[in-house]
Amino acid sequence: MGYKEISLKLPTDFTSEQLIQRIRKETGIQNFSCRIDNKSLDARNKNNIHWLIKAVVISDEIKGENAKPIETLQIPYKKRDKKILITGSGPAGFFAALVLQMAGFKTTIIERGTEVNKRDKGILDFEKNGTFSSTSNYAFGEGGAGTFSDGKLTSRSKHISVEKDFILSNYIQAGAPEEIAYMAHPHLGSDNLKIIVQNLRKYYINLGGEILFETFLEDLIIKNGNVKSAVLSSGTLDADYFFIASGHSSFETYRMLIKRGVLFRTKNFALGSRIEHPQELINAAQWGKKQLPGVKAAEYRLTSNPTNQLPVYTFCMCPGGIIVPATAYSNTNIVNGMSNYKRNARFANSACVAAVNPGKIFGREANAPEMLDWLENLEQQFFDYSNGYSAPVCSISDFIHKKQTSKKIESSYPLGLKPAPLWELLPEEVSNSMRSGLIDFSRKIKAFETGSIMGLESKTSSAIQVLREDDKRCTGFDNLFIVGEGSGYAGGIISSGADGIKAAINLIRMLE
User: Fold this and answer.
1) Of 54, 93, 406, 437, which sits most exposed with the smallest number of CB within 10 A?
2) How many other C-beta atoms lie within 10 A of the C-beta of residue 178?
């Protein structure tokens, strides 16, 4: 049985029968099986928007080699007596734990937040009453920050295809739509993720793994570069190896690790605000029409490199989504974006951020604690300005012209808006660069300047990075791994999950 790869152009609302008929027409083959390997939208010509499909056709009528086997993640199993403690249940922590459990280790995940259903209730209470919970919020809880997001599964990281396929296949088995295996820009949606993380938890527990929710890592007991025990909010726990995947919001965990001799350095990161438009405005600008059959909602990815200023770009665009109060602590105010699978909410939002170099902020080389203090102080300033969790806001046009917004702004943000000179709340160089970027974006997307801009977007990536060896162990430590977004080497669901998997595989190989 041979195989053949073919490329097709199909209408945005094509059916399975249309796909089969096109394959028959292109190949002349009547009996075959097929799969879609890639599906991406071509919207360059608004009069002819279509899907670009790469399909693999398998049939006895095709002469030649069999379809090449897909490389899969190899996890050697044997009964092992080593205990592994993993901090954090986000993609990095969970997939590291899953791989290690499948390899025969005894693994325990500790998660400072709550399980997802309790977390969901805490978030709903926060958005309804403004009552912040330190254990049930957008930053902490089962599945990590990504559980309440758009669930994007794209990644620019290289050399992670095997790990990515492992992650995607586990998501599909846990209830994710099969299209995530072939969409050029796949996403899960927060509504799906809340179900998926529960199913993954059940699978992990059935393999013998253990998860302890509402359990905070307070300290590590270390002797001569070897972690002996973890001091938890529930007591002390011994293990042979320790994985920390606490995410980029867990500042007190960072500070504890630094105090215990773990080496961190500052790194470039991004800072800015959230922008929001009616989704129909973005659809009309990108497609030339307010709706497009077979496509949920239009997206955009914008970049600008203003002369003698910081690079500016949009990040984590959430079509048909909402802006959410994503603070990790009661005295800070930050925003993020999320959307459900159907992406059918009224508004579109995206981060608009400038790339920041810590050395330029301080005018010298800064250390990791200074960077954390600076960032935390900025997040507290936004809280102080609003006297709570309402989002400082202005129109994009008024931000550009440094003009206070007087008209009422409609928004998806649930905790209210506070008109503000947002350009004054952000660091000056960031604000000036964003202004130039927004002018540029307004040339690229019609009526872009009519949207709104709000809040502080400070969690696109970690501002500090742990020093670690090629096997991902922390420099100077025998049995401590820091992985995922909190390590400073990953960003997003796929790259974070892959980072955790690679560290787990490295440990397995070390002990073979």
Assistant:
1) 406
2) 12
